[in-house]
């Protein structure tokens, strides 16, 4: 890990030349009045003259364009430094309104007046994120589905219609194209150190953003269109993100006070960044400023600064353990056009050689599962994507999220160090964080989401016995179902299937007193869901199986919600005597039907949870008839989908639900007899 001290840049020689030297080769002094009119508007025609094109195919010649823009950018930077904040606000604040982030762009002007390079890099990262979001809003004036990648957005016909193709080519010289300066990606992927980003490029992008606002105003007046800003993404379920709770202080016998990462913890972290081999010394200012931002309650700034540095540290581990040091220094076209975390956390390298990074992490949960959860999984917070694409209101960024990223970063700083870090690891505020990290389990992988689904569904079904019901003598007035042969057959089949499944269940969750209610319980599901299932590198059959299992669980939950809603409504109508004769009979049939529907649905939930527990084991064994198994699962899905239809308020076909359930149970019993379930194949 001596690399952390010896590396002076993470930019490859060609990229370093483009960003740090090419735009400084022309020594001409450029007159700002060439691109700035007397009333303060950007003269786009003069600006676009600095974009050069290749003779071969008329595509942008990025090298010549960057060289030509060098003096222009210098002139813009000097011009902004000559303005007071009041002058800048008067002249430009209006032209930033289209971004829906006026204050942020005004803050970037303040950054340009300081000499701290980390502030310029941070300002540029925030500027590009908000600019991308605003351009996406403009795109939606004409188009429908906004491109996810900035390079595709800038190359779109829709933006060319609004701003002009020449103007979009100017932007592509600075951001979006991997062949240009590519400032956004170089920063967000952690390749550039603070001193490697010239402030004049940040100034120029600020200038161009105001110019885009001027062009957009002309377009909107001409077309009578109204620019609508998409709402920001709001993090929901913050309790699920609470992995590193810090510590709890007992105030009284019954009250616990939650303490976030406090100043003492951050002070230790500030020492760790100087000692840990996880930190490249050229990137140290980013770490220091990130921790300072946390102390100052600037949580978005903190996370924006930390995420690229986590990527740098992991890339350092990745390149060292896989003996490919060139990847640490690569900021080339191909590498920056892909998701870097995906590459580093993949099971295999490009040449199908096994990736050694997870083994070095020792506990995959220490980094891989946490990073997949917070950054990649579609149902997770996807923090970096949403921050870097401008989807989050930076002013309202939640402390809870920053708390997790900072705490996780501290554990990595502790874990990877050449120094004797025992004293740090055993410190009373650090040790709980290390313990949390070592036992982390994925929360947003489809496996984890399915576990959550089945538990929520079982809780819902367990509410059925508590539903209000008519007195027993009223129910007996209508022909019941308890004595029906069909009802008896249902109970018998459920009992038979349970007896087949019992060998795969934890023994402490099985009750012989009542084989149905005693086994098909919430306690059993909790026990099954507590079993750790590896979520890393799930093969395709596993993911396809999970899709079907989750659909089954979703349908079961909808059935339960419909039953609860119908039972409560009908009871109220019964008591108010507003039901017609036919409706009364249908209500009583429903009350009798759900007595048998409840164990059937609980059986389905137990079955899919048992299948989930064994799915990885089967896929590691010899190939099995997966298509036939999937066909069985889809038949169970069809049963639950039909149940949703029949139990809906519009249908209320309660007799038919029992017929459906009977047929479904016969299929389940048949597949059990043929030993084709995953739990049977796994043994």
UniProtKB/TrEMBL annotation:
Signal peptide: none annotated. Residues 131-210 form the DUF4209 domain. It holds the Pfam family DUF4209. This is EMARD protein. It comes from Baryphthengus martii (Rufous motmot).
